[in-house]
Design goal:
Helix content is 18%, strand content 49%. It is built from three helices and 14 strands. The two termini are 43 Å apart.
Amino acid sequence: VRRPWRRRGLALALLHHSWIMDSNIEGVIYTTRFDDFGFAAAAKFLYVPFVEKDEWGRDGGKGYYIETIGTVNLSYNILSNYYFHGLSFGANLKLAYMGIPDTVAPGQSVFTGMVDVGVLTRFNFLKFYASSDNNFSIGATFRNISPLPTPDPLPTIASFGIAYSPIRPLLIAVDFNLPVSFDPHVPAERFYFAGGFSLMFSPFVGMQGGIKLKGGNPMLSLGTTIDLVAVSFVVNYNIDLTNSLDPLDKFSISARFDLGDQGRSEARTEVEKLYLEGIDLYAAGKVDEAIAKWKAVLELDPDFTPASDYIAIAEETKKLDREIIDRQTLE
């Protein structure tokens, strides 16, 4: 029996990033999941005040330089079980618009579409703590692929990354990024690396930091996470050579609202409860009752592999008991 098709893991996130000078980035993300299928929608908006100057330094055309990206994400997980995350495949379908005021440079605005593709898997490796969550992740993406012609090459990038949690509070991640150019007249940029960490001091307060090594302008970031009951806040400050003296430059804040998991946590609690009840019954010699409990577990969650394993052990126990009884009867 397959789990009922249900919504779970709903979340809404809002982002504000104060960039250099008067430019800002705003973002919104919505995510949800239906068992192995995931869906998300996002929008990001960059705007920069722009004033044209003539040869005498007098103000000319005014307006905003803007970049807007709308994204729809689709993902699907296969081959998952209790011990193995499986393989998650995903794709972003993106529409992008770069707007330049006609009063400044007419005919320079561009509208295009892009696609990202990626794959992710998780498993346990050098794990020194007890948890049902996998502690090692490997992923790869190919971003900003466009079948549409554009005046300038898009920032197409192939990335490979790993994340590792050696102890429960600490997560370390590194990635390798290779820019790609499909235009023979425009060479691609050099590859670069990035890394970061997340360290939780308590269940609701943590710190994160990162570094991007790209050319002669490394970027550093440092921030904190505050997890409340239904909302999480992440505050970051980014430092690189483009920073001005304005302390608000490169400052970002995001808020993530937990809209509920539609019964996921309750179902997980029930699964673990039935599983442990089955173990107690098996230890007490009530094998058939234990098997019934574990079958109920699999009805709720077919991927809960320990229940399948114990059913196989219990069936083998019953088989050995019958053989012993048969031999005693013959004797």
